[in-house]
Amino acid sequence: MGEFMTCASSxxxxxxQLAIPKGSEDDARAFWIxxxxxxxxxxxxxxxxxxxxxxxxxxxxxxxxVEDSFRPAKKAHPAFATHDLDALAEKLNTAGHPVRxxxxxxxRRRFFSEDPxxxxxxxxxx
Length: 126
Prior knowledge:
Blueprint: H1 2-8, E1 15-20, H2 25-35, E2 40-41, E3 53-57, E4 60-66, E5 79-82, H3 85-94, E6 100-102, E7 110-114, E8 120-125
Parallel strand pairs: 1-4, 5-8
Antiparallel strand pairs: 2-3, 3-4, 6-7, 7-8
C-alpha cells in the first residue's frame, strides 16, 4: 500500500479529453476560446489530420477529439474552478449556454452547463 501511495502522490493531471462531433471545431473554438478564454495549442504534426483541437488551461491541457460515433457525455464531466463563478454563470447564460445551479455539496458553490457539443461541464467557485 505504501508503494502505491508514493506513486499516486507523484501523479498530476497533464490533460483531459472531451469528444466532439466531426466538423464542430468552429463551434468549439467559439466556446472554449472566444467565451471561456482558453488559448489554442498547436497539435503535433502527426495528429493534425484527425480534426479536433487542443487548448491550454492553467496547469493542464484540454484536448477536444473528434469521435465518429459521437455521443455527448451527460454524466461524466470535467470540473473547472474559477474565482468569479457568478460572472461566468452570467456570461454562459447570455451566450445561450444555460446554467443549472447545484447545492448538493454543502459549502461548495457550483453549477453545470454544456459545451456546444452537449458535453456536461461543472464550474466550481474558489
